[in-house]
Amino acid sequence: xxxxxxxxxxxxxxxxxxxxxxxxxxxxxxxxxxxxxxxxxxxxxxxxxxxxxxxxxxxxxxxxxxxxxxxxxxxxxxxxxxxxxxxxxxxxxxxxxxxxxxxxxxxxxxxxxxxxxxxxxxxxxxxxxxxxxxxxxxxxxxxxxxxxxxxxxxxxxxxxxxxxxxxxxxxxxxxxxxxxxxxxxxxxxxxxxxxxxxxxxxxxxxxxxxxxxxxxxxxxxxxxxxxxxxxxxxxxxxxxxxxxxxxxxxxxxxxxxxxxxxxxxxxxxxxxxxxxxxxxxxxxxxxxxxxxxxxxxxxxxxxxxxxxxxxxxxxxxxxxxxxxxxxxxxxxxxxxxxxxxxxxxxxxxxxxxxxxxxxxxxxxxxxxxxxxxxxxxxxxxxxxxxxxxxxxxxxxxxxxxxxxxxxxxx
Length: 410
Ligand SMILES: C[S@@+](CC[C@H](N)C(=O)[O-])C[C@H]1O[C@@H](n2cnc3c(N)ncnc32)[C@H](O)[C@@H]1O
Hints:
Blueprint: H1 3-10, H2 16-19, E1 23-27, E2 30-37, H3 42-45, H4 61-70, E3 79-82, H5 89-96, E4 100-105, H6 108-118, H7 123-136, H8 149-154, H9 157-172, H10 177-189, H11 214-235, E5 242-246, E6 262-267, H12 277-280, H13 282-288, H14 297-303, H15 312-332, E7 333-344, E8 346-348, E9 351-353, H16 355-366, E10 369-376, E11 401-407
Parallel strand pairs: 2-10, 3-4, 3-6, 4-5, 6-7
Antiparallel strand pairs: 1-2, 7-11, 8-9, 10-11
Bound molecules: S-adenosylmethionine.
C-alpha cells in the first residue's frame, strides 16, 4: 500500500509528528508571551525513532517540532544547530521536516544515539548484524569473567557473560551505521538487564528487582527499532543532512560545521540543580568503553556544564559556561538568525533561583534581543510528569519553564 492510500485509511495517524503539537495560548497583557501546554504521555511523544534510546532529561519531541515550525529556514542550504543535542530530539524533528540540522554534545553516547536515530540505515544489514550478535549470546558458559566490583554490583553473572558475548560480537563487526544501530540497541538494554531501578535518573540499586533476560531484551529492542526506523525513513519526505558530533559547545570546530548558513540555534542545557549527565550513564559508559577509543571520561567531565549540586562556585560556573556557549552560538549564527533556549527556574536550598531571568540577562549582554517567551506547563504525561516527579524538584516555590526566542540583529 502506498503512502497516500495509507493516509486515506488511517488519516493523519500515520504522521504522529504532525498530530502532536503544543496547545498554545496567549498571555493577557503580555503580547510577546505564550503558554505551551503539552498534554501528551511520554509514550505518545516517543513516536518513530525518538524511542530508540531512553535519554533522561530530554525535552518533549513536540518542543523541538514547534520551534522548527515557528522559525523555518529561508533557504534549503540553511541548517539548525542544537548545541546541547542530548539524544537528538531536534535532529529527528528536523529530518522529518526536511531541514538540515547539526548537533553538538560533549557526550559520546549522546552523539551515538542521535546519529543512529536519523541515519539512513540499511535495515536488512542491521538485521543480519543483530542476528550474529544474538547468536553470540546463546552459548556463553565458556566466557570467563575477570573480577570487577562495579560489574558484580550491577549485573548477575550470567547476564554479564551474555553482555560480554554481545560486546565481543559487535567489536568483530566492521564500522558502519548499521553496526552503530545495533550498538545503540545494546546500550539501550544495559540498564534494564541490571539491578538498577528502571525509572530513576541516576542508577540506584533495587534489591527487589529481577533483571530482565538480556537475549530476550536485545531481540525485542532490535525488532522494535527496525520497525520504528522503517516508519521514520518513510515519514521523511524530503532529504536533508542531519548529524551530531562530539564537541564542547564553547568551541565548536569550524571545519566540522555543515556548509550553508546557521539560521537557528536550539539550546536545552542541563537544568541547574537537577543532575549531571555523565554519572547518569555510568552503566552505558562501562559497557561501551572498547567502542570509544577517542572518548575519555576525564576530558568529557571537564568540559561538561555542571548543574549539580548547586553550591556557590558551581552556580557561578554554570552561568559563566552558558555565557561562553551562547557567545559561540552568536558567532556561528548568521545575522538575523534566532536562538531558542529551553530553560527552567530551580530552587536552591528551598529558595527560588530565577534561572530564566538570569539567562535572559546574560544572553542579551552578548548582543541577542529577546523576541518572545513561551512558558511551558509541566504536566505533560497527563499530570504524571508534574514537578514532584522531576529530578530538580526541591520545594514548593513557583518555578517557570520556558522556551525563549532571541534574535541576532541583521
Ligand atoms: C538537557 S540535555 C539535552 C537533551 C536534548 N534536548 C534531548 O532532547 O535529548 C543537555 C545535554 O547537554 C550536554 N552538555 C553538557 N555540557 C555540554 C557542553 N559543554 N558542550 C556540549 N554539550 C554539553 C549533556 O551531555 C546533555 O546531553
